[in-house]
Amino acid sequence: MSIDMTTFGAILAMAIVTYFTRIAGLFVADRLVLSGRAKAAFDAIPPAVLIAVIAPTALTTGWAEAIAAAITAFVAFRLPLLATVAVGVVSVVLLRGVL
Amino acid sequence: MDQANPLSSTFGREARAGLRDIAPAAIAAIPIGLLFGAVAIAKGLTPTEVAFMSATVFAGGAQFAAIEAWVHPAPIAALAFATFLINARHVLMGASIGPKIKLTRPQKFVALFFMTDETWALSERRALDRPVTAAYWVAISAALYINWLASTTVGAVLGSFLGDPARLGADFAFTALFIGLVAGFGKSRVTLVTAAVSAVVSALVHHFIGAPWHVASGALAGIAAAYCAADREVRS
Q1: Tell me: the pLDDT tens digits for A47-96?
Q2: Which range marks the domain in which residue B92 is found?
Q3: Which residues constitute the signal peptide according to the record (chain B) (predicted)?
Q4: Considering CB atoms only, which of B57, B176, B222 is closest to A52?
Q5: Is residue B1 a part of any domain in this protein?
């Protein structure tokens, strides 16, 4: 079992930075008392982040991915999560075969 | 037994609810984990290093971005900075979910080590109508952690034996999963405006500036849009 020391250092640095981002919110939350528009903005964090992570894959990779993303979004409001993922994956495979 | 000990029965019920909720995300993560392990091996990491990274970093997006840019010897500062950019969203996520989990403050410093997009999104959705219990958090976190550690390590060991993941559509599972999670937040006007603005800004920034800037800018634009949209709703 081999671990290169530079690689080990890089992974450790990534781990420390990641843990810091995960707990930093605990210090901020104590001072956050939100209402009105600020609360709406804070409540929007979950969907805003999730969409921002996947938007390039969904929108700019190609037509197959874009159409499959639209189909997935359509069924997402009607099917359970696992079924939604299945529909999305099957859609993209079929569309890549056709387009 | 369950009736004799109501505390443990509540714990069991919460844990089972957690496992049920995390199952789709965990299953969707398996091909992604296998893919990560295989790609990491192709970049020159050993299976031990892959397992070590999954166990200590435990953040799919940051791990993929790091592996994508991996060279030997590893550029420690550049990798740490890219990791910070991609995981900066954790600060907002932790601030939002932290107060909603029923744990003591010291326990939260342990619990949040395991916070991921998936477990956080599920907990936010659950917090809409009931408290997020320790049992629920432990169940979803442990399931995803073991799942990610195992699938990335197996992917690393299998390495090049794995076929092209795109052929099976496995590369799209992550996208489909996130779309499904977003749908869980409903389709109020503010949410739809948030999603649309976030998507457009993220795609544009990714195209013209490049990763990983699209995550922070898309998310911040979506949050700003929600701030403005909510304002109009209040006035009308």
Answers
A1: 888 898 889 889 998 999 999 999 999 999 999 877 898 899 999 999 99
A2: 6-185
A3: none
A4: B222
A5: no
